[in-house]
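Researcher: Excuse me, tokens okay?
***
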Amino acid sequence: MSLPVIFVVSDSIGETAELVTRAALTQFDGAQADVRRIPHVNGEKDFMWAVDVAAKQHGIIAFTLVFPDMRKAIIDACQAKGVLWVDILGPMMEALAASSAMRPRLQPGLVRQLDEEYFRRVEAVEFAVKYDDGKDPRGLRAADVVIVGVSRTSKTPVCMYLAHQRIKAANVPLVPEVVPSPELFRLPKGRVVGLTIRPENLNHIRQERARSMGLGPTADYANPDRIRRELDHSEDVMRAIGCPVIDVTNKAIEETAAKVLELIRPSLGPGQGGR
């Protein structure tokens, strides 16, 4: 069965209206329709021709328009020419406004913006996992920020927090026995941020960690001399890189991440690092 032409009219790209239209079509066995999308409508001139065609071919106009005057204009045009019309977005917006006493933003394309933000966030989280703990130095140049520091300075949690702000963050542990990747020293200024902590606080954190791992309190991991040597080494590396350093002693993850964002914000692209 062939149905009439259906024009999908939108002040954004029209994905929502087309999705609803095609979902409705699946309820009619064997139904086929010519669904034509008319995106980025700015005025009556953008849709009047479709109303004329629909009138001649007994077609349907389905639309998602956020501005009330645009919705009224297309409804008036359809009624004047006897064209069937479906306002997909308007009734729900009006119901939400009536039940909440809130005013809609009347900004086209917000759904797609939310989708893009979501996928950027997912991509950033995957990046943080892939390039956690210096697993692959090839990710350093692709990162928005590289966090460096000794073990247990919250590098991974900070990177994950930043990822949820759509920031691609990698981290590299600084250990005296391991020579840092040369790539770390070639990164543009402002791309690397160091984390440090007071020795006594790190000692306490590592003792707790060693206990949870079934290690004794005398394990080298939590040895005060070892900790001081690691911190001295990390300080030398950070000085050689020329990166800013944040003391994370008694700082919450959110506080450290906010400071990192403040340091790197000038180098970020539009739409990164929250609103």
Observations:
- Residues 138 and 183 are 8 Å apart (CA to CA).
- The beta strands are 6-10, 35-38, 60-64, 84-87, 145-149, 169-173, 192-196, 245-247.
- The chain has a mean pLDDT of 87.
